[in-house]
Write a structure and sequence with these properties.
Elements: H1 12-63, E1 83-86, E2 89-94, E3 99-102
């Protein structure tokens, strides 16, 4: 005779419950991780734009005029020298004012 009280192990229902709990925790965790990545990308892009604006101001301090294109400070796009791209965001450069504006 087999005594069920002395057998060790997990039942199928217990294993299914554990897998269900792990699945729910993963469903809660994955969206927060992807949201954090997009926020980090936008913060990184904002930092890059500030650096380009600083380079524009340094050029102005040295030459007393804003650069005609971003290619002058080696930051212009290959196809459009008045556009600066960061991640998936594009910024337009206005040579008259020396400002970058988001498209």
């Amino acid at each position: 005779m087999i005594n069920r009280d002395t057998e060790r192990g997990f039942t199928l229902v217990e294993m299914a419950a554990v897998l269900l709990i792990i699945s729910v925790l993963l469903l809660l965790l994955v969206p927060s991780m992807t949201d954090g990545k997009s926020r980090a990308d936008s913060v990184s892009c904002e930092g890059s734009v500030r650096i380009v604006e600083s380079e524009i101001n340094l050029y102005y301090a040295e030459h007393k005029t804003y650069p005609e294109t971003l290619a002058v400070i080696k930051r212009g796009g290959a196809t459009d020298p008045l556009t600066y791209s960061c991640q998936s965001t594009a910024y337009t450069y206005a040579p008259a004012t020396g400002t970058l504006t988001k498209k």
